[in-house]
Protein backbone atom coordinates (compact mmCIF):
# COMPACT_ATOMS: atom_id res chain seq x y z
CA UNK A 1 0.00 0.00 0.00
CA UNK A 2 1.55 3.21 -1.11
CA UNK A 3 -1.34 5.39 0.04
CA UNK A 4 -0.84 7.23 3.27
CA UNK A 5 -3.58 6.00 5.64
CA UNK A 6 -3.90 9.51 7.05
CA UNK A 7 -4.90 10.71 3.63
CA UNK A 8 -7.67 8.10 3.45
CA UNK A 9 -8.83 9.26 6.83
CA UNK A 10 -8.84 12.80 5.65
CA UNK A 11 -10.80 11.79 2.58
CA UNK A 12 -13.33 9.88 4.63
CA UNK A 13 -13.57 12.82 6.95
CA UNK A 14 -14.19 15.17 4.04
CA UNK A 15 -16.80 12.83 2.53
CA UNK A 16 -18.56 12.56 5.87
CA UNK A 17 -18.43 16.32 6.22
CA UNK A 18 -19.94 16.87 2.77
CA UNK A 19 -22.64 14.24 3.45
CA UNK A 20 -23.46 15.91 6.74
CA UNK A 21 -23.62 19.31 5.10
CA UNK A 22 -25.87 18.06 2.29
CA UNK A 23 -28.10 16.24 4.76
CA UNK A 24 -28.25 19.39 6.84
CA UNK A 25 -29.09 21.39 3.70
CA UNK A 26 -31.93 19.01 2.80
CA UNK A 27 -33.31 19.37 6.30
CA UNK A 28 -32.91 23.14 6.19
CA UNK A 29 -34.60 23.18 2.79
CA UNK A 30 -37.58 21.29 4.19
CA UNK A 31 -37.77 23.64 7.14
CA UNK A 32 -37.60 26.65 4.81
CA UNK A 33 -40.36 25.21 2.61
CA UNK A 34 -42.53 24.72 5.69
CA UNK A 35 -41.85 28.28 6.82
CA UNK A 36 -42.76 29.62 3.36
CA UNK A 37 -46.01 27.65 3.35
CA UNK A 38 -46.87 29.06 6.79
CA UNK A 39 -46.15 32.63 5.65
CA UNK A 40 -48.10 32.01 2.43
CA UNK A 41 -51.14 30.99 4.52
CA UNK A 42 -50.65 34.08 6.66
CA UNK A 43 -50.63 36.16 3.46
CA UNK A 44 -53.89 34.44 2.40
CA UNK A 45 -55.35 35.74 5.65
CA UNK A 46 -54.03 39.26 4.97
CA UNK A 47 -55.49 39.07 1.45
CA UNK A 48 -58.86 37.96 2.83
CA UNK A 49 -58.83 40.98 5.15
CA UNK A 50 -57.90 43.35 2.33
CA UNK A 51 -60.69 41.88 0.19
CA UNK A 52 -63.89 43.89 0.13
CA UNK A 53 -67.04 41.85 -0.65
CA UNK A 54 -68.73 44.96 -2.08
CA UNK A 55 -65.98 46.97 -3.80
CA UNK A 56 -66.43 46.92 -7.58
CA UNK A 57 -63.56 46.86 -10.05
CA UNK A 58 -62.73 49.81 -12.27
CA UNK A 59 -64.60 49.65 -15.59
CA UNK A 60 -63.10 50.56 -18.95
CA UNK A 61 -64.56 51.73 -22.23
CA UNK A 62 -64.72 48.99 -24.87
CA UNK A 63 -62.32 51.06 -27.00
CA UNK A 64 -59.64 50.30 -24.36
CA UNK A 65 -59.79 46.54 -24.97
CA UNK A 66 -56.40 44.90 -25.49
CA UNK A 67 -55.70 43.95 -29.11
CA UNK A 68 -54.50 40.53 -27.99
CA UNK A 69 -55.71 38.54 -25.00
CA UNK A 70 -53.55 35.51 -24.15
CA UNK A 71 -55.36 32.23 -23.69
CA UNK A 72 -54.05 29.38 -21.65
CA UNK A 73 -54.84 25.82 -20.58
CA UNK A 74 -52.77 22.96 -19.18
CA UNK A 75 -53.87 20.27 -21.69
CA UNK A 76 -51.53 19.68 -24.66
CA UNK A 77 -54.28 20.85 -27.06
CA UNK A 78 -57.25 23.19 -26.65
CA UNK A 79 -59.79 21.30 -24.51
CA UNK A 80 -63.12 20.86 -26.34
CA UNK A 81 -66.28 18.95 -25.57
CA UNK A 82 -67.47 16.58 -28.27
CA UNK A 83 -71.18 17.06 -27.67
CA UNK A 84 -71.92 20.60 -26.45
CA UNK A 85 -75.67 19.85 -26.22
CA UNK A 86 -75.02 17.29 -23.48
CA UNK A 87 -72.82 19.56 -21.38
CA UNK A 88 -74.20 20.35 -17.93
CA UNK A 89 -72.68 22.23 -15.00
CA UNK A 90 -73.09 20.20 -11.82
CA UNK A 91 -73.58 22.19 -8.64
CA UNK A 92 -73.30 20.20 -5.43
CA UNK A 93 -71.58 19.69 -2.10
CA UNK A 94 -72.89 21.58 0.90
CA UNK A 95 -76.14 22.70 -0.80
CA UNK A 96 -79.82 21.96 -0.19
CA UNK A 97 -80.64 21.09 -3.82
CA UNK A 98 -77.87 19.93 -6.18
CA UNK A 99 -78.28 21.19 -9.75
CA UNK A 100 -77.34 20.20 -13.30
CA UNK A 101 -77.58 23.27 -15.54
CA UNK A 102 -77.16 23.90 -19.26
CA UNK A 103 -75.62 27.19 -20.43
CA UNK A 104 -79.15 28.41 -21.31
CA UNK A 105 -80.38 27.50 -17.82
CA UNK A 106 -77.51 29.52 -16.37
CA UNK A 107 -78.12 32.51 -18.64
CA UNK A 108 -81.75 32.61 -17.55
CA UNK A 109 -80.64 33.12 -13.92
CA UNK A 110 -79.16 36.56 -14.57
CA UNK A 111 -76.71 38.38 -16.83
CA UNK A 112 -73.84 40.76 -16.17
CA UNK A 113 -71.39 42.32 -18.65
CA UNK A 114 -68.31 44.36 -17.70
CA UNK A 115 -65.10 45.56 -19.33
CA UNK A 116 -62.29 45.16 -16.79
CA UNK A 117 -58.56 44.67 -16.43
CA UNK A 118 -57.31 41.11 -16.14
CA UNK A 119 -54.25 40.55 -13.92
CA UNK A 120 -51.96 37.59 -14.49
CA UNK A 121 -49.60 36.33 -11.76
CA UNK A 122 -46.81 36.67 -14.34
CA UNK A 123 -47.25 40.44 -14.35
CA UNK A 124 -49.10 41.09 -17.58
CA UNK A 125 -52.52 42.68 -17.71
CA UNK A 126 -55.11 43.00 -20.46
CA UNK A 127 -58.52 44.59 -20.79
CA UNK A 128 -61.47 42.57 -22.02
CA UNK A 129 -65.27 42.40 -21.88
CA UNK A 130 -66.82 39.45 -20.07
CA UNK A 131 -70.49 38.42 -20.02
CA UNK A 132 -71.83 35.90 -17.56
CA UNK A 133 -74.19 34.98 -14.76
CA UNK A 134 -73.33 35.97 -11.19
CA UNK A 135 -72.28 32.89 -9.24
CA UNK A 136 -74.36 34.18 -6.36
CA UNK A 137 -77.56 33.63 -8.42
CA UNK A 138 -76.63 29.97 -8.87
CA UNK A 139 -75.70 29.61 -5.21
CA UNK A 140 -79.08 31.09 -4.26
CA UNK A 141 -80.85 28.60 -6.53
CA UNK A 142 -78.95 25.66 -5.01
CA UNK A 143 -79.27 27.00 -1.45
CA UNK A 144 -75.88 26.78 0.26
CA UNK A 145 -75.78 25.25 3.73
CA UNK A 146 -74.40 27.23 6.70
CA UNK A 147 -71.25 25.11 6.97
CA UNK A 148 -70.18 25.86 3.35
CA UNK A 149 -67.08 28.05 3.59
CA UNK A 150 -65.24 27.31 0.33
CA UNK A 151 -66.00 26.55 -3.30
CA UNK A 152 -64.22 24.05 -5.50
CA UNK A 153 -64.29 24.52 -9.29
CA UNK A 154 -63.51 21.51 -11.51
CA UNK A 155 -62.83 21.48 -15.25
CA UNK A 156 -62.30 19.12 -18.19
CA UNK A 157 -58.82 20.67 -18.75
CA UNK A 158 -56.57 17.81 -17.62
CA UNK A 159 -57.66 17.94 -13.99
CA UNK A 160 -57.23 21.70 -13.60
CA UNK A 161 -59.17 22.91 -10.59
CA UNK A 162 -59.30 25.76 -8.09
CA UNK A 163 -60.46 26.38 -4.55
CA UNK A 164 -61.97 29.69 -3.47
CA UNK A 165 -63.06 31.34 -0.25
CA UNK A 166 -66.84 31.84 -0.09
CA UNK A 167 -66.79 35.68 0.25
CA UNK A 168 -64.78 36.04 -3.00
CA UNK A 169 -67.11 33.59 -4.76
CA UNK A 170 -70.21 35.50 -3.61
CA UNK A 171 -68.86 38.89 -4.75
CA UNK A 172 -71.37 40.49 -7.15
CA UNK A 173 -68.74 40.57 -9.91
CA UNK A 174 -67.85 36.87 -9.68
CA UNK A 175 -69.52 35.40 -12.75
CA UNK A 176 -69.75 32.20 -14.73
CA UNK A 177 -68.84 33.66 -18.12
CA UNK A 178 -70.30 32.48 -21.42
CA UNK A 179 -69.33 35.57 -23.47
CA UNK A 180 -66.08 37.40 -24.26
CA UNK A 181 -65.73 40.66 -26.20
CA UNK A 182 -69.39 40.65 -27.39
CA UNK A 183 -69.16 37.11 -28.74
CA UNK A 184 -69.84 33.65 -27.49
CA UNK A 185 -66.97 32.33 -25.36
CA UNK A 186 -64.45 30.53 -27.59
CA UNK A 187 -62.72 27.23 -26.70
CA UNK A 188 -59.34 28.95 -26.15
CA UNK A 189 -60.92 31.09 -23.40
CA UNK A 190 -62.70 28.22 -21.65
CA UNK A 191 -65.91 27.41 -23.59
CA UNK A 192 -68.59 26.58 -22.84
CA UNK A 193 -68.32 28.17 -19.36
CA UNK A 194 -65.55 29.64 -17.24
CA UNK A 195 -65.22 31.36 -13.93
CA UNK A 196 -64.38 35.08 -14.10
CA UNK A 197 -63.78 37.87 -11.56
CA UNK A 198 -61.74 41.09 -11.74
CA UNK A 199 -60.62 40.58 -8.13
CA UNK A 200 -58.68 37.33 -8.66
CA UNK A 201 -55.50 36.49 -10.58
CA UNK A 202 -55.99 34.63 -13.87
CA UNK A 203 -54.92 31.23 -12.56
CA UNK A 204 -57.80 31.30 -10.05
CA UNK A 205 -60.36 31.68 -12.87
CA UNK A 206 -61.15 28.07 -13.78
CA UNK A 207 -61.94 27.52 -17.46
CA UNK A 208 -63.85 24.62 -19.08
CA UNK A 209 -66.06 24.22 -15.99
CA UNK A 210 -67.71 20.91 -15.22
CA UNK A 211 -68.58 21.07 -11.53
CA UNK A 212 -68.95 23.51 -8.66
CA UNK A 213 -68.78 22.06 -5.17
CA UNK A 214 -69.46 24.02 -1.99
CA UNK A 215 -67.29 22.62 0.80
CA UNK A 216 -66.54 22.99 4.49
CA UNK A 217 -62.84 22.14 3.98
CA UNK A 218 -60.45 24.29 2.00
CA UNK A 219 -59.86 22.79 -1.47
CA UNK A 220 -56.43 23.07 -3.09
CA UNK A 221 -55.82 23.97 -6.71
CA UNK A 222 -53.76 22.97 -9.73
CA UNK A 223 -51.07 25.64 -9.27
CA UNK A 224 -51.79 26.27 -5.60
CA UNK A 225 -50.80 22.65 -4.79
CA UNK A 226 -47.45 23.33 -6.48
CA UNK A 227 -46.68 26.39 -4.38
CA UNK A 228 -48.56 29.34 -5.85
CA UNK A 229 -50.44 31.57 -3.38
CA UNK A 230 -53.84 30.10 -2.56
CA UNK A 231 -55.93 33.25 -2.19
CA UNK A 232 -54.66 34.84 -5.41
CA UNK A 233 -56.72 38.01 -4.95
CA UNK A 234 -55.86 41.31 -6.57
CA UNK B 1 -18.22 59.30 20.77
CA UNK B 2 -21.49 57.39 20.60
CA UNK B 3 -22.73 57.43 17.05
CA UNK B 4 -25.57 55.00 16.29
CA UNK B 5 -28.25 53.60 18.56
CA UNK B 6 -28.51 49.76 18.50
CA UNK B 7 -31.90 50.07 16.74
CA UNK B 8 -30.23 51.96 13.90
CA UNK B 9 -27.39 49.46 13.62
CA UNK B 10 -29.60 46.36 13.78
CA UNK B 11 -32.12 47.67 11.24
CA UNK B 12 -29.30 48.87 8.96
CA UNK B 13 -27.62 45.46 8.84
CA UNK B 14 -30.93 43.61 8.51
CA UNK B 15 -32.13 45.86 5.71
CA UNK B 16 -29.02 45.21 3.64
CA UNK B 17 -29.48 41.42 3.04
CA UNK B 18 -33.28 41.73 3.10
CA UNK B 19 -33.34 44.35 0.34
CA UNK B 20 -30.98 42.27 -1.76
CA UNK B 21 -33.05 39.13 -1.31
CA UNK B 22 -36.14 41.19 -2.20
CA UNK B 23 -34.37 42.38 -5.35
CA UNK B 24 -33.25 38.86 -6.30
CA UNK B 25 -36.70 37.33 -5.76
CA UNK B 26 -38.25 40.34 -7.50
CA UNK B 27 -36.06 39.74 -10.55
CA UNK B 28 -37.25 36.12 -10.55
CA UNK B 29 -40.86 37.35 -10.62
CA UNK B 30 -40.00 39.95 -13.26
CA UNK B 31 -38.63 37.22 -15.54
CA UNK B 32 -42.15 35.83 -16.08
CA UNK B 33 -43.11 39.02 -17.98
CA UNK B 34 -40.01 41.17 -18.56
CA UNK B 35 -41.76 44.23 -19.97
CA UNK B 36 -44.01 47.03 -18.78
CA UNK B 37 -47.29 47.95 -20.45
CA UNK B 38 -50.67 46.43 -21.24
CA UNK B 39 -50.54 43.22 -23.26
CA UNK B 40 -50.05 44.13 -26.92
CA UNK B 41 -48.16 47.35 -26.10
CA UNK B 42 -47.08 50.07 -26.17
CA UNK B 43 -44.35 49.27 -23.65
CA UNK B 44 -42.28 51.56 -21.44
CA UNK B 45 -38.56 51.78 -22.15
CA UNK B 46 -36.59 49.06 -20.39
CA UNK B 47 -32.80 48.83 -20.65
CA UNK B 48 -32.69 45.79 -18.32
CA UNK B 49 -34.55 43.29 -20.49
CA UNK B 50 -32.30 40.27 -19.98
CA UNK B 51 -30.80 39.65 -16.58
CA UNK B 52 -28.34 36.90 -15.57
CA UNK B 53 -29.68 33.90 -13.67
CA UNK B 54 -27.32 34.45 -10.71
CA UNK B 55 -29.28 37.60 -9.92
CA UNK B 56 -32.46 35.60 -9.26
CA UNK B 57 -33.78 33.91 -6.13
CA UNK B 58 -36.50 31.26 -5.98
CA UNK B 59 -35.88 29.05 -9.03
CA UNK B 60 -39.28 29.62 -10.63
CA UNK B 61 -42.12 32.12 -10.46
CA UNK B 62 -43.86 30.57 -7.44
CA UNK B 63 -40.53 30.32 -5.60
CA UNK B 64 -39.75 33.96 -6.33
CA UNK B 65 -43.23 34.99 -5.17
CA UNK B 66 -42.94 33.01 -1.94
CA UNK B 67 -39.53 34.51 -1.08
CA UNK B 68 -40.76 38.01 -1.95
CA UNK B 69 -44.01 37.71 0.02
CA UNK B 70 -42.20 36.21 3.00
CA UNK B 71 -39.29 38.67 3.30
CA UNK B 72 -41.51 41.71 2.78
CA UNK B 73 -42.83 41.34 6.35
CA UNK B 74 -39.49 41.54 8.24
CA UNK B 75 -38.44 44.37 5.91
CA UNK B 76 -41.61 46.35 6.61
CA UNK B 77 -41.26 45.57 10.34
CA UNK B 78 -37.70 46.90 10.62
CA UNK B 79 -38.70 49.87 8.47
CA UNK B 80 -41.46 50.78 10.89
CA UNK B 81 -39.14 50.18 13.88
CA UNK B 82 -36.51 52.47 12.35
CA UNK B 83 -38.96 55.24 11.45
CA UNK B 84 -40.53 54.99 14.89
CA UNK B 85 -37.13 55.33 16.58
CA UNK B 86 -36.05 58.24 14.38
CA UNK B 87 -39.27 60.15 15.06
CA UNK B 88 -39.41 59.54 18.82
CA UNK B 89 -35.70 60.14 19.47
CA UNK B 90 -35.53 63.31 17.38
CA UNK B 91 -32.59 61.80 15.47
CA UNK B 92 -34.44 62.55 12.23
CA UNK B 93 -33.34 66.18 12.56
CA UNK B 94 -29.73 65.13 12.00
CA UNK B 95 -30.64 62.97 9.02
CA UNK B 96 -33.53 64.41 7.04
CA UNK B 97 -32.74 66.97 4.35
CA UNK B 98 -34.68 70.16 4.96
CA UNK B 99 -34.84 73.58 3.20
CA UNK B 100 -32.19 74.89 5.62
CA UNK B 101 -29.77 72.30 4.22
CA UNK B 102 -29.85 73.74 0.70
CA UNK B 103 -27.09 76.32 1.25
CA UNK B 104 -24.77 73.87 3.09
CA UNK B 105 -25.38 71.36 0.29
CA UNK B 106 -24.14 73.89 -2.24
CA UNK B 107 -21.03 74.56 -0.12
CA UNK B 108 -20.43 70.82 0.20
CA UNK B 109 -20.73 70.39 -3.58
CA UNK B 110 -18.26 73.26 -4.09
CA UNK B 111 -15.82 71.46 -1.79
CA UNK B 112 -16.13 68.19 -3.70
CA UNK B 113 -15.76 70.03 -7.02
CA UNK B 114 -12.58 71.67 -5.59
CA UNK B 115 -14.09 75.14 -5.84
CA UNK B 116 -13.64 75.46 -2.10
CA UNK B 117 -10.53 74.38 -0.21
CA UNK B 118 -11.69 73.76 3.34
CA UNK B 119 -14.28 71.18 4.34
CA UNK B 120 -17.44 73.02 5.43
CA UNK B 121 -18.46 72.50 9.07
CA UNK B 122 -20.98 69.74 9.53
CA UNK B 123 -22.93 67.85 12.16
CA UNK B 124 -23.40 64.09 12.28
CA UNK B 125 -23.94 64.15 8.52
CA UNK B 126 -23.16 66.77 5.94
CA UNK B 127 -25.93 68.21 3.78
CA UNK B 128 -25.18 65.95 0.80
CA UNK B 129 -25.30 62.89 3.03
CA UNK B 130 -28.64 64.10 4.35
CA UNK B 131 -29.82 64.37 0.78
CA UNK B 132 -28.72 60.82 -0.02
CA UNK B 133 -30.16 59.27 3.16
CA UNK B 134 -33.45 61.14 2.79
CA UNK B 135 -33.63 59.93 -0.78
CA UNK B 136 -33.06 56.29 0.17
CA UNK B 137 -35.72 56.41 2.89
CA UNK B 138 -38.21 57.86 0.40
CA UNK B 139 -37.19 55.16 -2.06
CA UNK B 140 -37.89 52.51 0.59
CA UNK B 141 -41.36 53.93 1.16
CA UNK B 142 -41.98 54.12 -2.58
CA UNK B 143 -40.95 50.48 -2.97
CA UNK B 144 -43.34 49.28 -0.27
CA UNK B 145 -46.25 51.38 -1.55
CA UNK B 146 -45.76 50.44 -5.21
CA UNK B 147 -45.42 46.82 -4.06
CA UNK B 148 -48.85 46.95 -2.43
CA UNK B 149 -50.22 48.67 -5.56
CA UNK B 150 -49.03 45.67 -7.61
CA UNK B 151 -50.20 43.09 -5.07
CA UNK B 152 -53.78 44.42 -4.74
CA UNK B 153 -54.62 46.60 -7.77
CA UNK B 154 -58.38 46.02 -7.36
CA UNK B 155 -58.72 46.22 -3.57
CA UNK B 156 -56.22 49.11 -3.25
CA UNK B 157 -57.21 50.70 -6.58
CA UNK B 158 -56.64 54.21 -5.14
CA UNK B 159 -53.00 53.34 -4.53
CA UNK B 160 -52.52 51.70 -7.93
CA UNK B 161 -54.06 54.78 -9.55
CA UNK B 162 -51.71 57.05 -7.61
CA UNK B 163 -48.81 55.27 -9.34
CA UNK B 164 -50.50 55.67 -12.74
CA UNK B 165 -51.99 52.18 -13.03
CA UNK B 166 -50.91 48.57 -12.59
CA UNK B 167 -48.20 48.50 -15.26
CA UNK B 168 -46.85 51.90 -14.22
CA UNK B 169 -46.70 50.68 -10.59
CA UNK B 170 -44.64 47.69 -11.78
CA UNK B 171 -42.39 50.14 -13.60
CA UNK B 172 -41.85 52.29 -10.46
CA UNK B 173 -41.18 49.16 -8.41
CA UNK B 174 -38.63 47.98 -10.99
CA UNK B 175 -36.77 51.30 -11.17
CA UNK B 176 -36.54 51.35 -7.40
CA UNK B 177 -34.34 48.24 -7.78
CA UNK B 178 -31.74 50.03 -9.87
CA UNK B 179 -31.80 53.10 -7.65
CA UNK B 180 -31.16 50.84 -4.63
CA UNK B 181 -28.28 49.17 -6.46
CA UNK B 182 -26.80 52.52 -7.53
CA UNK B 183 -27.19 53.97 -4.03
CA UNK B 184 -25.48 50.96 -2.48
CA UNK B 185 -22.49 51.20 -4.82
CA UNK B 186 -22.04 54.93 -4.15
CA UNK B 187 -22.73 54.56 -0.43
CA UNK B 188 -20.20 51.74 0.10
CA UNK B 189 -17.57 53.54 -2.01
CA UNK B 190 -17.96 56.80 -0.11
CA UNK B 191 -17.90 55.06 3.27
CA UNK B 192 -14.47 53.62 2.54
CA UNK B 193 -13.07 56.55 0.56
CA UNK B 194 -14.40 59.51 2.54
CA UNK B 195 -14.88 58.24 6.09
CA UNK B 196 -13.76 54.64 6.82
CA UNK B 197 -14.31 55.17 10.55
CA UNK B 198 -18.04 55.43 9.88
CA UNK B 199 -18.07 51.75 8.84
CA UNK B 200 -16.91 50.77 12.30
CA UNK B 201 -19.39 53.24 13.72
CA UNK B 202 -22.27 51.37 12.11
CA UNK B 203 -21.02 48.09 13.61
CA UNK B 204 -19.95 49.05 17.15
CA UNK B 205 -21.98 52.23 17.51
CA UNK B 206 -18.84 54.18 18.44
CA UNK B 207 -17.20 56.65 16.11
CA UNK B 208 -13.58 57.85 16.21
CA UNK B 209 -13.39 59.50 12.81
CA UNK B 210 -12.83 62.99 11.51
CA UNK B 211 -16.30 64.48 11.72
CA UNK B 212 -16.87 64.65 15.42
CA UNK B 213 -18.65 67.97 15.69
CA UNK B 214 -22.13 68.02 17.09
CA UNK B 215 -25.09 69.44 15.24
CA UNK B 216 -24.35 73.15 14.55
What does this structure look like?
- By secondary structure, chain A is α+β, with helices and mostly antiparallel strands.
- Chain A has a single domain, classed as Oxidoreductase, molybdopterin-binding domain (Sulfite Oxidase, Chain A, domain 2).
- Helices cover 27% and strands 24% of the residues of chain A.
- Chain A contains 4 helices and 10 strands, in the order αββαββαββαββββ.
- In chain A, the strands form 2 sheets. Chain A has a 5-stranded mixed beta sheet with strand order 2-1-10-5-6. In chain A, strands 3, 4, 7, 8 and 9 form a 5-stranded antiparallel beta sheet that branches.
- By secondary structure, chain B is mainly α.
- Helix content of chain B is 63%, strand content 0%.
- Chain B contains 8 helices and no strands.
- In chain B, α1 packs antiparallel against α2 and α5 packs antiparallel against α7.
- Chain B is globular and about 55 Å long.
- Chains A and B meet through α1 and β4 of A and α2 and α7 of B.
The number of distinct β-strands of chain A equals 10
Largest sheet of chain A: 5 strands, mixed
Total of DSSP H or I helical runs spanning 4+ residues of chain A = 4
Give the name of the CATH architecture of chain B.
Up-down Bundle
Per CATH, the superfamily of chain A is Oxidoreductase, molybdopterin-binding domain
Structural class, from secondary structure content of chain B? mainly alpha
Q: Which chain pair shows the most residues in contact?
A: A-B, 36 and 26 residues
Summed over residues and divided by their number, the pLDDT of chain A gives a mean of 93
Order of helices and strands of chain B: HHHHHHHH
Report low-confidence residues of chain A grouped into runs of 5 or more.
Answer: none
For the record, the CATH architecture of chain A stands as Alpha-Beta Complex
Unreliable parts of chain B: none
| Gap from first CA to last CA of chain A | 70 Å
Amino acid sequence: MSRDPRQVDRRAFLAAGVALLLGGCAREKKRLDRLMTTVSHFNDGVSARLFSPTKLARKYDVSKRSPSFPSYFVSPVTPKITNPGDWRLEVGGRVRSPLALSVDDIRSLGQLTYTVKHHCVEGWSAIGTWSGTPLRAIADRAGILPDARYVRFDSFDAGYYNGWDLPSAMHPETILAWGFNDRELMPDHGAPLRLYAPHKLGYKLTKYLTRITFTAERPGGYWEDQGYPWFGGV
Amino acid sequence: MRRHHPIVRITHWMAFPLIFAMIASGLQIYRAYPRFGEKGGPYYANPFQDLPSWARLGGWLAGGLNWHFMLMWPLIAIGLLYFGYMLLSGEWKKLIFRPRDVAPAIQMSRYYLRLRRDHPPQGKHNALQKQAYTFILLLGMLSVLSGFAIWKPTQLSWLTRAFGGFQAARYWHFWAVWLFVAFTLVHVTLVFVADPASFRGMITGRYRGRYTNDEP
